[in-house]
Amino acid sequence: MRSLGKKETAEKKGILYGVGTGPGDPELMTLKAVRILKECDMLLLPAGKKEDCRAYRIAAAAVPEIKDKPFIGFEIPMTRDEEIRNKAFRRIHGEISGYLMERKTLAFLTIGDPAVYSTFCYLADEAKRAGDEVRMISGITSFSACSARAVQPLAEGPQEIHIIPSESDYDEALKLPGTKVFMKAGGRLKELKEKLTALPEGSVRISAVENCGMENERVYEAVKELPEEKTYMIVVSVAENR
User: Fold this and answer.
1) Exposure of 141 by Cβ count < 10 A (0-12 exposed, 13-18 middle, 19+ buried)?
2) What is the pLDDT of residue 228?
3) CATH level 2 (architecture), domain 142-240
4) pTM
5) Those residues with Cβ within 8 angstroms of residue 124's Cβ, 6 or more apart along the chain or in another chain
């Protein structure tokens, strides 16, 4: 008996989609994301309950039909421990593999873009190792949306753009040329504000947006305006003044 190759095996399975819902405003979801959510057989949510899933709330506002779709919610550990994280995603893949064998199309919802600091990336790795077909549906990133909301270009001409995750060394990051975008900086906002305040006056311009596209959205246009209390959904852009 001839064994099936990876490509042939994937063709006999369903498809696992990572669907980006954008930063918060349902109107910023792409037409392709809307279509996939309408057509998919089941939703996968990075939270145990629908009401606790920000990506689901965004998607449901744009595609009300998904409220009637079956879903599986996963409690995903927020940890930097690779062993714990990998074990969790192996378990999650084990839970959905049967549906893929039944040729179901599954849509994993994630805020922003599934290719940028998304938990979907870890599930996608597990699925690809198992020979599953995986596709990503791009979403508008938080830093693009925040730049547009603040009417502040991320870069012009030869300027570089650097995306800085919250685990980075902020002192080293601020030495980089061009624009520095501090993602999910809320937990270290006081520290970042202090470092920006210490820079030579007029050397940088900043813009920051909290809860971009949501009802409680706030835009900050100066270092002194930045709050110091911890907040989860805030993006801070720091550009060199020319």
Assistant:
1) buried
2) 78
3) 2-Layer Sandwich (3.30)
4) 0.87
5) 16, 18, 114, 134, 136
